[in-house]
Amino acid sequence: MQAVVEPKAYSDGVSTFLARAGKLLIGNQWVESDTGRMFPVEHPATGEVLAHVALAGVSDADKAVTSARQGFKRWSGLSPSSRAARLFRLADLLEQHAVELAELETLDVGKPFAAARMLDVPFAIETLRYNAGWATKLTGESFDLAYQSSPFSAGTIRQPVGVVAAIVPWNFPLLQAIMKVSAALAAGCVVVLKPSEVTPLAALRLGELAVEAGLPAGVLQVITGTGAEAGAALVAHAGVDKVSFTGSTAVGREVVRSCASDFKRVTLELGGKSPNIIFADADLPRAIAGAAQAIFFNAGQACYAGARLYVEKAVYEQVLQGLVAAAAALRVGDPFALDSEMGPLVSARQLTRVLDFVAAGRREGARVVHGGTRLDRPGYFMAPTVFTDVREEMGIMQEEIFGPVVCVSPFSDIRDVVARANDSRYGLAAGIWSSDARKAQTVARALRAGTVWINTYHTIDPAMPFGGWRESGWGREFGRQGVESFTELKSIATRL
Ligand code: NAD
Prior knowledge:
Elements: H1 12-19, E1 24-26, E2 29-31, E3 38-42, E4 49-54, H2 58-77, H3 80-96, H4 98-109, H5 113-134, E5 142-143, E6 152-160, E7 163-167, H6 173-186, E8 190-194, H7 201-212, E9 220-222, H8 227-236, E10 242-246, H9 249-260, E11 265-269, E12 274-278, H10 284-296, E13 306-312, H11 316-329, H12 348-363, E14 367-370, E15 385-388, H13 395-398, E16 405-411, H14 414-421, E17 429-433, H15 437-446, E18 451-454, E19 473-474, H16 479-484, E20 487-495
Parallel strand pairs: 7-8, 7-10, 8-9, 10-11, 12-13, 12-17, 13-16, 15-16, 17-18
Antiparallel strand pairs: 1-2, 3-4, 5-6, 6-20, 11-19, 14-15
The structure holds nicotinamide-adenine-dinucleotide.
Nicotinamide-adenine-dinucleotide (NAD) binds at residues 167-171, 194, 196-197, 226-228, 231-232, 235, 246-248, 251, 254-255, 269-272, 303, 400, 402, 428, 468, 472-473.
């Protein structure tokens, strides 16, 4: 086992960054907020205040959009290869600062440093590189007109939508920011990025490195502040052409209402309550480990967490025992300790919310067979929690808890499990564990979800479109489709 790193053992680079993190990035300048107000950022493992960050208001949002409108002329006027070159340079810079970025994610979110260093940060950088590659590869198509008899040359081109408001949540702050910023910039758009008020640090550091990488003024602005004030002001701003939002379904609904006034383009990555199905013919040790990882990774604070676990009756007891053993063995603790597998929840508010769900589940008659409580230590730690005796109509089976809480339920019939898995207003992701390829494919086709994983979970990739059906969202991120979502399609017909 590797040595335990003291919680405060983050690098000097991070310490100096925390001291200067209180400004907004507008037009490549670090400026004070017009509100003059600041808000504290906490380390969830201790509750200590790490930094004070600017609380942007309506006029700050307006300045950021105005700057972006000017930046759009510069950026969309560059050749695709010049844009790509700058994005690749940014990726290299991020790589040089990978440890520091991972430390920031751990400080801000409380996620284990090992995960931030090995997963979040490298994956974010590869997403940036992947999207940068698309800058030079977006195309329209040419075709023959169907109805016209005289000769025409006809086809489509893709053009950038314009100014994008990118609004992201707190569970994967750097990755979420980079997903949106890199896809938008590759498509020729410019961005005003608003990170979550709970985790604003990585976005601010990304902004600094973007300036260093040579992004022209106005291409990326970063404004910190609340959703109700800065976020809502961006969404309502007439100078914004597209909103790319990741967050809760409730706020997504507000975003849609606001965008409806001027028909802004909108992409929404929202909540989930994903089913994970283990068939009796699965490789059980793998399936059990996969099911534990599906819910406990990032302390369950993942939109695609496998929160409803359906297990075929013949192996139900075995899987349940295995899952409880996995939960009991999970090392929950100081996220800077290199052997920690689960850190705290992101905030006191989130911990309360999750514990309230657990209490409600108990009241409804579900049984906690492991965990269910907060840990007796500073910070917002909670035990990995396993519920049984659940029914589909219970709140804990229908609502997104967004914490390390899994509901386990037996099934005996494929049609029944498909119907129960689909009995959700969400449709983000689903998992299937089986050694019968035909059965797994059949079930995968029957599930109403944007992504289905077979004999794996959490497999996201920059090349694989990701997004939700139903109340899990609109549109896709990642893949060609993710970059194209920042373009408008224009048809051009020329009479020859
Ligand atoms: P949230 O909806 O409270 O906030 C998300 C972002 O929206 C934050 O930056 C917030 O400041 C901003 N915001 C809040 N109110 C706003 C408003 N009225 N107008 C504009 N912006 C506003 O969500 P959260 O608590 O930060 O994150 C957790 C949620 O995010 C969960 O529901 C989770 O499922 C979802 N999520 C979805 C995905 C996905 O890809 N589908 C990924 C990660 C998280």
